[in-house]
Amino acid sequence: MKVLPSPHPIATEGRSAEVQVLRSRTRYWEYGPAEAPVTVVAVHGFRGDHHGLESIVGYLRADDPALRVIAPDLPGFGESEPLSRTHDIAGYAAWLSGFLEALGIRGTAVLLGHSFGTIVVAGALAGGLPAPAPSSSTRSPRPLCPGRMRWAPGSRSSTTGSAPAFRSGSASASCGGAP
Question: N or C: which end of the chain has fewer CB within 10 A?
Fold first, then answer.
């Protein structure tokens, strides 16, 4: 794997690798120790690539340096080849399941989707992808509201979260209302 520096303020270095999934080459970046007890797979949005998630990866890793984060380029984006089948939600969901299987983390990885990535993650879970509960996190493309996040311990899903919250499965947050 090649080590690449991040241009973001909270820098993190990723190791680049590739794997065959559904007869297409997928390029991905891995941050943190391979033997970490928790692996987060971060799925980027439409028209993006893994670079769009580097600041999130940096913040998660700054919060917990032992956390492992894997950020693939979706098929047809960044450095990954297009799917060998139709590019639709079912195709991307099948790809995500195959990607996790190829890396040996299917059913154990925490899934974090951003924008279009939330649809891919939701499609895969709806299609039967096993995931440890609570295990998925989605982030819609709306502004963050720093200083106004309310955490709900014990929640089963997350709109945003920190590494300890991912680790414990207690992340849930909402924006709005009084800080």
Answer: C
Pairing state of beta strands 39-43 and 68-72? parallel
CB 70, CB 96: distance < 8 Å: no
Question: Tell me: the pLDDT tens digits for 126-144?
Answer: 999 887 655 444 444 433 3
State the number of CA atoms in the 13 A half-sphere of 149 facing the CB: 16
Q: What 3 state SS string does 144-169 have?
A: CCCCCCEECCCCCCECCCCHHHHHHC
CA geometry: angle 108, 113, 114, nearest 5 deg: 160
pLDDT in tens, 84-104: 988 899 999 999 999 999 999
CA–CA separation, 165 and 40 (whole Å): 12
Peptide bond preceding 146 in cis form (omega within 30 of 0): no
Fold of 2-145: Rossmann fold (3.40.50)
Between CA 57 and CA 65 the distance in angstroms is: 10
Q: What's the whole-model pTM score?
A: 0.72
User: CA nearest 153: which of 174, 173, 139?
Assistant: 173
User: Is residue 42 exposed (0-12), middle (13-18) or buried (19+ Cβ within 10 Å)?
Assistant: buried
